[in-house]
Write a structure and sequence with these properties.
single chain; five-stranded parallel beta sheet; Rossmann fold; 200 residues; alpha/beta; globular
Length: 200
């Protein structure tokens, strides 16, 4: 039975989400920090599928397999011990991203992907959604010098739209943060949101 708290950080590439996740380790040293795709062999297969531009459906199921392993090996054990888990990306990334990559295969791809997760995934207690102008996000990704197929303005506009739809459907779980501001400002707001949620 779940006793801990699952907090997830979501948003399109280039929001600074992963940088914030690293910064949060100082403020919440007792929390378990994790990420999807994971660093397991399945997570590495996911990254290879992205780099090789695998079939979108095949890619989805690699993501789902990685998610299942993540829950079994990291998320569920930590929550059962009453710990706070903070994950940089989680199931909502799959709904938003694969909902976009599979939009030509299904009438409502995002709902279809969500359906695959029903009954076994663990729904986060709190999801912080980082939003940003996709053109700014792409320029930030360009600085990294490792553009992937997921880092194109049109695609990211669709993905962010999907994220916002998810937030609209579950307003009690989502907190939307403007990631277009200075990183330090964003960090302080995220810390405040988490502290308030945890009752600190």
């Amino acid at each position: 039975m779940q006793k801990g708290t699952l907090i997830t950080l979501e948003g399109i590439d280039g929001t600074g989400k992963s940088s914030i996740a690293k910064m949060l380790k100082t403020r919440f040293p007792e929390a378990v920090f994790t990420v999807e795709p994971t660093k397991s062999w399945i997570g590495k297969a996911v990254k290879r599928s992205i780099e090789s531009e695998a079939d979108p459906l095949a890619e989805l199921f690699l993501f789902v397999a990685d998610h299942a392993e993540h829950i079994a090996k990291v998320i569920r054990p930590a929550l059962s011990e009453g710990k706070t888990v903070i994950s940089d990306r989680y199931s909502d990334s799959r709904y938003a991203y694969q909902g976009a990559t599979l939009s030509d295969k299904f009438d409502d791809a995002m709902e279809w992907v969500q359906g695959i997760h029903k009954g076994w995934t663990i729904v986060p207690d709190l999801t912080i959604l980082f939003t940003i102008d996709p053109s700014i996000a792409v320029s930030r990704c360009g600085v990294r010098g490792n553009h992937t197929k997921f880092e194109k303005i049109g695609f990211l506009e669709t993905v962010q739209g999907n994220f916002l739809t998810l937030a609209k459907n579950e307003p009690q779980r989502f907190v939307i943060i403007d990631a277009g501001r200075e990183l330090e400002v964003v960090r302080l707001e995220v810390e405040s949101v988490i502290e308030k949620f945890l009752g600190k």
